[in-house]
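Protocol step 4 of 6: structure prediction from sequence.
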Amino acid sequence: MGLFGGKSRNQAPIGRDERLAQVEEENRALKSRLEETRELVRHLDEDRDLLLGAVERLRPGQSPRELGQALMEVCFKPLGLACFYVALADWDRDQLEFVLYHEGGRVRQHPSRRLSDRAGLSERVLSSRRAIYIRTMEEGQASGSLLTAAEQATGLIPHSWYGVPLGLGVRPTGLVSFQSFQTDAFSESRRRVMDALAALMSACMSPQETLQRP
């Protein structure tokens, strides 16, 4: 305070510094929101391309293995998958048959098993008739995840697992499984895209085709 009650000459620069700091903070916040918007648009573009690619590649009349192969080629890299498989449920024969199983960089033969044993996550998806999302390897182990021979041999085990049933009704015709080495890899929006991909594949499968053996 000056001799006659006036403001100190130092106060004006201090006020300008505070305002400048405020403007800089607002600018950083605006840049952050802009980057978030760009990232959202990028993901939306990727999701659109995934769905359009699946619509172009999947056709009625293809066998379940052919449909699975086409879907895998469309989504494997964009979704950052470590493993992908399609399994069909033969409820009359009490069999779960893996018509396509891709892991470790190649397609592998995976043995069928009895549905009634309810031995793994696939059977949980089929019995509950709903999609199941596993976010971590520990959660998967606690939920009954079974290690494949390749996983046991290499120790490379996916952390995220998302299984979606194929078909409606009391007895789904099978399921599609998407897996990643990353923990909690699939956001809610990405899981909705996976649901749509599985629904498209299911729509392309006729009842006669689901009973064909690979």
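Step 5 (inspection) to follow. The chain has one domain: 58-210.
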